[in-house]
User: What shape does this take?
Amino acid sequence: MLRDSQGLVVFGWLWQEKRDDGQQGYNCSIFRNESDRRSSEIILEAEKAAFKAWGPRRLFTYVDGSQLRGQAGKYRKPKVIGKCFLAAGWKMRVRKNGKPHLSPNGLYLFVKPSYLAPLCIPAGRSVQ
Assistant: This one.
């Protein structure tokens, strides 16, 4: 579990080996960013901490597309599901037919293989 000193950032990994949906690896089980930092930077930092503590493994999470903040307006670009994970190098899993891999609850699956481990974190950025 990573948390900043003001309580504006929280990020938690959970090792998952046996699940009903067949997913294995480090599961991002909680992530919330109320700070001014980019969420993608926090994700990369959390990846680095997990790999340092437990070794490289596959990463995965489920994103609820219905919980996007704000709405796409007339002059705004449409909201992108999992934008911060995409910016951190994660991929949305899609099925052979091109449709997104969804959980039974309608959550979108995002994954990052262990070989795409973060190489660096921008200087001066850290979650304490």
Notes: Strands lie at 2-3, 9-16, 25-33, 59-63, 91-92, 108-112.
